[in-house]
Amino acid sequence: MTDEETRVLTTGGQIDVREVGQGTTALFVHGLMVNGHVWDPLIAGLRDRFRMVLPDLPLGGHRTPLEPDADCGLQAHAQRVVELARRLPPPVVLIGSDTGGAIAQIAVTLEPDLFDRLVLLPSDAFDNCPPRLLAPMRLLADVPGAVRAVALSLRLDLVRRAMMLLVSRRSPDPALLDVLLGELPGSRGVQRDFAKLLRGLRPEVTQAVAKELHRFRRPVLVVWSRRDPLFPFHHAQRLASCFSHSSVAIAENSRAFVSLDEPEWLAARIAEFVAAGDGRPQADTR
User: Fold this and answer.
1) First vs last C-alpha separation in the chain
2) What's the domain count of the chain?
3) Helix, strand, coil distribution of the chain in percent, nearest 5
4) What is the pLDDT of residue 278?
5) Ranges for the AB hydrolase-1 domain (predicted)?
6) Does the residue 282 lie in any domain?
7) Which residue range is the domain that position 110 belongs to?
8) Maximum Cα interatomic distance, the chain, rounded to a whole number of Å
9) Helix, strand counts (H, E) of the chain
């Protein structure tokens, strides 16, 4: 298929979705304060084998605000992922990172039979939601004007690059950095959605879903960064142990956003995992 951009109506509002490539359907769920462009470095390595579905979920880096009364909690976003997946030709591989990884965990418990396999990159899990270094941001959501002030500060290149250093060892290409944050710096609607999401980031949510992950019986690949300030390394094996059919691959030279730090390596791991069929992929610790 040719590359295309659409706007899809989901519960609570519309979501911008890009589709790139052809082959097995892969639905990518990005993290907090960014959008589907965080996956762009993977496109060259995957587009010949995958129909890459890249939504801009309303997690702060989106362009199109949800309806003012829309639910922006993790469960509601997981339901939107399920709605997107239902529109796609099976089998569907679900890939989640950061906050999007928590959303992916919830999605596979909501509809275990909808997804053929799951890839989890460094993500909120267990008691680490939001990550401890980002916990003060959740408090900002209840301070009048605080979220808007943070959003406006992201117009400064220095602030944007400092933020990205938390999640990536590489300094993103300036053109990519310009699109990663969507309309957060300038749109009050996007800022509203973001503030509501922050209020819903609670460890009780991820702790509860961890108890339900056993319901997903398809193959799971957990890709984790060995040295990352946000997501504890021991969570990789702990998360993998929640599933009956899982393996772990370790990114040695990445922080949370492996798609930015080691795109070629990650693309190869995803392709190998899907090509392995129902056999267990081998853990790759390099």
Assistant:
1) 34
2) 1
3) 40, 20, 40
4) 53
5) 27-263
6) no
7) 4-275
8) 52
9) 12, 8
The pLDDT score that the predictor gives to residue 172 is 82
Q: What is the dihedral of CA 271, 251, 77, 83, to 10 degrees?
A: 10
> Token pair of 20, please?
């790139």
Q: List the Cα angle 100/106/107 in 5-degree steps.
A: 85
Give me the amino acid identity at 166.
L
For residue 24, what are the contacts with CB-CB under 8 A and spacing of at least 6?
49, 50, 51, 91, 93, 274
DSSP H helices in 96-248:
99-110, 135-140, 146-153, 157-165, 174-180, 188-199, 203-210, 234-240
101 lies in some domain = yes
Q: What is the CATH number of the domain that holds 113?
A: 3.40.50.1820
Choose between 24 and 139: higher pLDDT.
24
User: Position of tokens 């298929």?
Assistant: 1
Residue closest to 120 by CA, chosen among 98, 101, 134: 101
The answer to whether residue 68 sits within a structural domain is: yes
Is-above-0.90 flag for pTM?
Answer: yes
Q: Which residue has the tokens 């587009």?
A: 47
